[in-house]
Specification:
200 residues; 2 domains; 24% strand
């Protein structure tokens, strides 16, 4: 499955407990991996994808977001846990740098000023609209072969209420704004989000 572009323990939308969170050391390793995978790509080299711990080798969904001088510069990810986290971070970092069609490919000159944020996703769970919590839940809405995903931080940044969040996720999927009321599948996830420098 190809990565999708985007625009501590956590409780999941169904009320269970998500897998253990990531330590400061884990976070530093993953952010370093994201940087290295981008830097090595400029020279046609690949990063070593041997996870340093079993925890980082578990399959997880993840989105990697790049910022250049404080502005969004790319965001690509896996919504589902299809590959080990360590590999997923490397692949989505490169995709965010070079394959997000909203932006031109990253240049070597920009690289020193790039800051990275990672959003590690919980498994998807079915959710009803009344259960959606802004700032806690991300959404996936799907109908047929169309699917849209928005991360938990998106409605917070844009001041959306749950209804607008649902409508905008439908729009992301290429569906009518009211598709969430007309048979579309609504799923939610939580995300452990962390970054570096000014993104902490």
């Amino acid at each position: 499955m190809s990565p999708l572009p985007e625009n501590s323990s956590h409780a999941d939308p169904a009320g269970g407990i998500e897998p253990p969170g990531f330590s400061l050391e884990d976070r530093a390793l993953l952010l370093k991996l994201a940087h290295e995978s981008i830097a090595l790509a400029f020279d046609g080299r690949e990063v070593l994808l041997i996870p340093p711990s079993p925890h980082l080798g578990e399959p997880r969904g993840v989105f990697t977001t790049l910022y250049y001088l404080g502005n969004l510069r790319g965001c690509v990810g896996f919504a589902l846990a299809v590959v080990p986290l360590y590999r997923a971070v490397a692949e989505t970092a490169q995709a965010a740098a070079f394959e997000d069609t909203r932006f031109p490919p990253l240049t070597r000159e920009e690289l020193p000023q790039i800051e990275i944020s990672l959003s590690i996703l919980s498994p998807l769970r079915a959710i009803i609209p009344d259960q959606i919590e802004i700032g806690r839940h991300g959404l996936v809405i799907s109908l047929g072969d169309r699917r849209g995903l928005l991360l938990p931080q998106v409605p917070v940044e844009r001041g959306w209420d749950p209804i607008i969040f649902l409508e905008q996720t439908c729009h992301k999927a290429g569906l009518p704004a009211n598709a969430w009321q007309s048979g579309a599948k609504i799923e939610a996830f939580t995300a452990e989000v962390f970054g570096e420098k000014g993104l902490l």
